[in-house]
Amino acid sequence: MKESATLAVGARAAAMKAQGIDVVGFSMGEPDFDTPANIKRAAIAALEAGMTKYAPTAGDKAAREAIARKLQSENGIACTLQDVTVTAGAKHAVYMALQTMIEPGRGDEVILPTPAWVSYRPLIELAGGVCVEVAGAMANGFRATPAQVQAAMTPRTIAILLNSPSNPCGIVYPVRELKAIVDVIAANPKIAIISDEIYEKLIFPEIVAGTAHWSPGSDPRVADRTITINGMSKAFAMTGWRIGYLCAPGANGQFAKEVIKLQGQMTNSIASFFLPAVVEALAPASAAAVEEMRAAFASRAVLMHRLLSAIPGFRTTQPTGAFYSFPEISQLFGRVSPGGVEIDSAQAFADALLNEAHVAVVPGEDFGECARGHVRFSFACSPAQIEKGLARVEAFVRSLKAPASAGGCAGVTSRRL
Q: What is the pTM of this model?
């Protein structure tokens, strides 16, 4: 397996910073905010009260009930605590859902709209499945269409993995479009839905009016074959806590039971004193802090898009959710950096940008075949860092030269930029 591209870039940037190099990081999908104080206090109080023993594999009753209430009231998903398990991050939940669902050696196919998060394909393949990419065109806001999903289906298709708001694209599927995709799935009763909704609270209707979240698991036609995945990491700035959850109400919770069985042989529960923090995070007392962070990300999305759009050779789409922008940079391919690196790929661009301009971005290659000409910028950092980092990016791009062998073509390349 390849290592995670996002974690690899983050590690390189961290190593450079440790050497005293001033690196501006746009690579990690990690909010720069601290966890809200009331959530931290809930964990501290539990720890001090002696909540340090093993917890039930799926989490305690209070945490699972809080998650079930949240899914019922906010997402319209009919479920009970028995359908829920608390996991070591949302990635762990995706892993276990795929491991439980896929039968190795059978040729099970999972449809994946791309560009998509770098870990989805490896997790599908690690479970023994076949990843079938459905490329969302940039002209359509990176969104796959129902017709594309229908065309990708075969007798071996067992699931589709959806992620809206999207990593890496920073886009939100309009509710009508997501429902149209679910219409296609509803007509195929052997196909399940894995809906990763980790960014659901980071949506920006002030940018595009009417933008809203919708959970496929709320549709009664597919409710019993939809696995909803979420967690605390993004909306609550709790990445290091490693708290996710999975909900699978189908067949009287039988799928959830199988997942919990697998979990019991893997990790067992999360740290027991974190469970009261789950309850507190989902309580009304945390809503104001979540909204404050959401509004800040919305403002940054506008700033990021404006500055990226001014960089020659970049084509961009306005983010409407999460905290990512995913510009297309292939017009720069064929150029040479001041350090002598030929920019022949997104990977080469990202490497040269980090080494020469000290800005960390994630190259698009691992986000899907259709993403090879893109790089991902995370704007989970301050406006000052965004302005500082993108000033460096623009200066770096403007310093790129046509190769010496280009001769008379240099002028043509310049006009393309």
A: 0.93
